[in-house]
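Q: Could you write out the predicted structure for this multi-component system? I'm mainly interested in how the pieces pack against one another.
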Amino acid sequence: MQLSARNRLPGTVVEVVKGEAAAKVTLQVGDNHMVALITRESADELGLEPGKSVTALVKATDVMVLTEEGGVA
Amino acid sequence: MQLSARNRLPGTVVEVVKGEAAAKVTLQVGDNHMVALITRESADELGLEPGKSVTALVKATDVMVLTEEGGVA
Amino acid sequence: MQLSARNRLPGTVVEVVKGEAAAKVTLQVGDNHMVALITRESADELGLEPGKSVTALVKATDVMVLTEEGGVA
Amino acid sequence: MQLSARNRLPGTVVEVVKGEAAAKVTLQVGDNHMVALITRESADELGLEPGKSVTALVKATDVMVLTEEGGVA
Amino acid sequence: MQLSARNRLPGTVVEVVKGEAAAKVTLQVGDNHMVALITRESADELGLEPGKSVTALVKATDVMVLTEEGGVA
Amino acid sequence: MQLSARNRLPGTVVEVVKGEAAAKVTLQVGDNHMVALITRESADELGLEPGKSVTALVKATDVMVLTEEGGVA
C-alpha cells in the first residue's frame, strides 16, 4: 500500500482524552510531543492507549513553516 | 507569543521546489523527512533554502494516527 | 452560487453524535459511509438528523490518494 | 519570527465553549464572526476568555472561495 | 494496518495535471468526480495515471456538510 | 442553502497567480489581505480576476488562535 501523504512520524501514544464526539491523542515522536484531534470513534476502533506504537500521518498541504529571524522564539 | 497549533517540530530545510503558485519544501526533522506544500510567496518571503533552521507547525486537527496491527507495514 | 471546493458528494445523514464543542456526523454517500467532525453549533443550526439529505463537501487540498500495490489492502 | 501561514486576522474572543477534548472559540474579526475548533488543551494554555485580543491564523490551502453569480446568496 | 482517517472512497484516476510543486488528480468515485491537490512528488511516486485504481482518503475534520433548504441548489 | 463552514468573510479579489495545477488568489477582506491556494481549475471556472466580489470560506477546524503575551508580535 502507498499513500500520497508525505509525512509519517513513528511514535508512541502517551495519553488519550475522550469526549463524546472528539478525542485528543498525545504522542511521543522522537524528542517531540505531537497532538492529534480525531473522532472518538477512531480512537476506540484503533484501540489507542498509552504505550501503543503508532505513526502520526500529516498531508503536506497541512504543514506550515516557521522561521525565527531576529532571535525571537 | 503563543499559538494554539499543538505540533512544533524543529528541523532544517533540505530542498525547495518552486512552481508558479505553490512550493514544496522538504525538511529534515530528527530522523524523519517532512514535506510542506505552501504558497511560493511564503517560500520567497521566508527566504527558505537548504540548510536554514525552521520549525514545522501542524494543527492537531490535521494529524492522523496509523496503527500497524497484523504485521502489515 | 459557485464554490471553489471541488468535491461535492450527495448523501443522507445516518447518525449525529453531539459533544459540547464538536459533533460527529455519519453520512451514507453512494455505497460508502463518510464521517464529518464539525462544530456542534453547525450541527444544531443545520438541523442535522438521520434521514436528512445533505451534501458532503471537501476541498481538493484535503484529499489524499492511496494505491494498493502488492495486494496489501 | 515569521510564519508561512498567509492569513492573520486580528480580533477579540467573544465566547469559549469547552468539551472534554475540543473547544469552540468564537471571535469578532472586523465586522465578521469567526469560529475556531481547537483542542481544549490549547484553549486552557492560551487562557482564552471573552474580551482577550487574539489573532486568527489560517493556512492558504484551507481558504475556499465562493462567488455569488446569479443573485443567489 | 488501520488508519484514523474515517473516509475511504474507492475510485479510478481520470486525469493527472502536474505542475512543478503540485499536481491535480481527478478521480471517478461512484457517480461523482473528486479532485485531489497533492505534491507532484506523490503523484510521481505513486505512479498515478488514468485508469489506475486508487482510494480517496479524507480526514473527518476536513468534511463539511451542506443542506439545501428552500430549494436553492 | 446552508453550509457547516462557520467562517465567511466577504471581500474582493486583488490578484490571481496561476500555475499548472494550483492557483494563488489574494483577497482584500476588510482591512486584511487573505490568500487562498486552490486548484487552477477552480480559479478558471469561477472566473476569478481582480475586482471580483467573492467570499472567503474557512472550516472552523482550520482556524488557529495566536495570543501575543509579553509584547512579542
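A: Regarding packing and overall arrangement: The radius of gyration of chain A is 14 Å.
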